[in-house]
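Page 37, continued from 36.
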């Protein structure tokens, strides 16, 4: 790699140790210099270099002049150096920067450099600030929504104690709104917020809060661009404002998928350094009506039933998911219907790949541009020359899942579709056909083991750009099919929601919310939104412990 010319180089002190500090356009580096006086050919002292520490300029948070404790000024190696005086005014500046501490966690570290005179100190502060001012992609004004009731109801405290001071340090100004009811943030974004004032929108909460902000921002962007949300074939306008998530929810799936960890300080630092991660969004329609957007999972059958049951047991807290999961597993319902889809033919990846979507993902960067408006295949199978061939699969399914990202989280370390991508314009449909309880259990357990969860005869996986699902018991095109049930004799019962007949249709679980209709049409909108994140970093570098702060 070509060596960058240095912008500034000086010998500076950190505590009592001497460092050669160099700033170039991309890196701030400090190398320890040890003075050892030894006779080489009669006289002269030589310098030996020790530990090296580098910080990318793009990961410097702030720089400021620092008060010097006058009592310490005469200490240090400068006393031993004839060419640097200790008699002058000792000055210092502090650099705050991102330190990667492992497990994808970031922390804000401070390093104070002491200079022999004020001019050098001011020069360093000026040059560092100049370099930071070139990073125009960093946000300066943010709109923050805090859900005080998400997760363990710690949203406000998390923001005030862990995030606000970092934003102040980075000279980011904020307008903060603590939400007063569900959909407050969505509706404020849709209609009231003056979005021209901001460089990004931050939500403090969980996946539900993120979903609110996504819905508000997409709706606002489409209304500003004159796009009809109910038109399932419309090409949606991209949202330019980035969204940041400060995790304060119960599951924080989106944070795990885009940052690798649900840590408020790490997320705040990704926002400050101005990271960008594009993300696909699925639009979900029922005939001519818009229902919802989804960024992670659309699940019918097993995952829909778990959510429906867990909503009835909210009083149990987070334990309701385990309880409902177990109950749904035992009930072992299957559902009949037809899934039609348009396979993603021009993508570089496949759902059975061993590679994963990571920071700077090649597959997402080289996605085939989705320029055509969404067109729906009529009937079960339809050929459309410009888009490829629709396929249809009719059957009895225990689960139909569409994963737009891996959905990996501590509960399911590999996720539902380990090789799914955040921003390649596709979603992975996973069909689990009717099988024995034991086989279904084998499939479920493989989400937590090394074995391939798709390598089972009753499981199929397809990477698609669009799909539609038609449940078997959906006689009228426009009827609401939620309450269609089947009694013991196989007859359809619509009239007795309280009788003991089994539902013949499941509900769709759309990113943790229940959809009102089973018959849906879904289209993937490639890179519709952007997050303040950079994707999960592969083997994030551990810093060698040569930093003077560790001394
Ligand atoms: N002030 C409020 N009062 C009640 N509900 C709110 C308020 N603000 C937001 N909400 C709603 O609370 C729901 C849950 O919030 P959130 O996603 O932050 O936490 P969570 O459900 O515990 O976490 P996760 O979604 O990660 O499981 C969201 O759907 C949001 O619409």
């Amino acid at each position: 790699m070509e060596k960058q010319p240095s912008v500034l180089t000086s010998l500076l002190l950190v505590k009592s140790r001497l460092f050669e500090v160099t700033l170039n356009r991309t890196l701030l580096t400090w190398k320890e210099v040890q003075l050892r006086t030894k006779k080489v050919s009669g006289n002269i002292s030589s310098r030996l270099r020790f530990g090296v520490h580098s910080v990318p300029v793009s990961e410097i948070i702030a720089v400021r002049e620092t008060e010097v404790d006058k009592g310490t000024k005469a200490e240090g190696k400068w006393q031993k150096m004839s060419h640097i005086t200790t008699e002058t005014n000792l000055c210092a500046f502090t650099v705050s920067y991102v330190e990667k501490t492992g497990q994808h966690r970031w922390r804000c570290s401070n390093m104070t450099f002491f200079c022999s005179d004020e001019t050098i100190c001011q020069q360093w502060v000026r040059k560092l600030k100049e370099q930071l001012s070139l990073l125009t992609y960093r946000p300066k004004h943010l709109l923050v929504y805090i859900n005080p009731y998400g997760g363990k109801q710690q949203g406000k405290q998390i923001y005030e104690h862990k995030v606000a001071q970092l934003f102040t340090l980075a000279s980011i100004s904020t307008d903060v709104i603590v939400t007063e009811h569900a959909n407050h943030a969505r509706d404020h974004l849709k209609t009231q917020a003056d979005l021209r004032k901001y460089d990004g929108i931050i939500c403090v909460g969980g996946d539900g809060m993120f979903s609110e902000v996504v819905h508000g921002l997409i709706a606002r962007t489409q209304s500003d661009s004159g796009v009809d949300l109910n038109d399932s074939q419309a090409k949606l306008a991209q949202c330019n404002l980035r969204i940041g998530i400060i995790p304060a929810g119960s599951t924080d799936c989106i944070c795990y998928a885009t940052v690798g960890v649900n840590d408020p300080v790490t997320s705040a630092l990704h926002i400050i350094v101005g990271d960008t991660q594009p993300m696909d969004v699925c639009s979900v329609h029922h005939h001519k009506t818009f229902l919802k957007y989804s960024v992670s999972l659309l699940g019918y059958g097993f995952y829909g039933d778990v959510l429906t049951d867990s909503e009835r047991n909210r009083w149990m807290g987070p334990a309701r998911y385990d309880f409902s999961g177990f109950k749904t597993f035992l009930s072992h319902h299957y559902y009949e219907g037809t899934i039609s889809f348009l396979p993603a033919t021009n993508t570089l990846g496949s759902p059975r790949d061993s590679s994963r979507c990571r920071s700077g993902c090649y597959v997402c960067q080289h996605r085939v541009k989705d320029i055509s408006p969404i067109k729906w295949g009529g009937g079960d199978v339809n050929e459309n020359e410009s888009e490829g061939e629709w396929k249809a699969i009719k059957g009895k399914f225990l689960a139909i899942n569409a994963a737009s990202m891996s959905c990996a989280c501590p509960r399911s370390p590999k996720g539902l579709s380990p090789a799914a991508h955040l921003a390649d314009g596709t979603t992975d449909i996973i069909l689990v056909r009717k099988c024995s309880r034991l086989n279904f259990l084998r499939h479920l357990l493989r989400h937590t083991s090394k074995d391939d969860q798709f390598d089972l005869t009753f499981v199929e996986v397809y990477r698609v750009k669009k799909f539609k699902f038609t449940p078997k018991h959906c006689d009228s095109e426009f009827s609401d099919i939620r309450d269609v049930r089947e009694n013991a004799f196989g007859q359809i019962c619509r009239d007795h929601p309280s009788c003991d007949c089994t539902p013949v249709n499941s509900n769709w679980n759309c990113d943790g919310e229940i959809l009102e209709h089973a018959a849906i049409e879904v289209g993937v909108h490639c890179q519709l939104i952007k997050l303040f994140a950079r994707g999960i970093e592969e083997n994030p570098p551990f810093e060698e412990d040569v930093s003077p702060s560790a001394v």
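The chain has a mean pLDDT of 85. Flag for discussion at group meeting. The pocket of adenosine-5'-triphosphate is lined by residues 147-151, 179-184, 205-209, 212, 249-252, 512 (CB under 6 Å).
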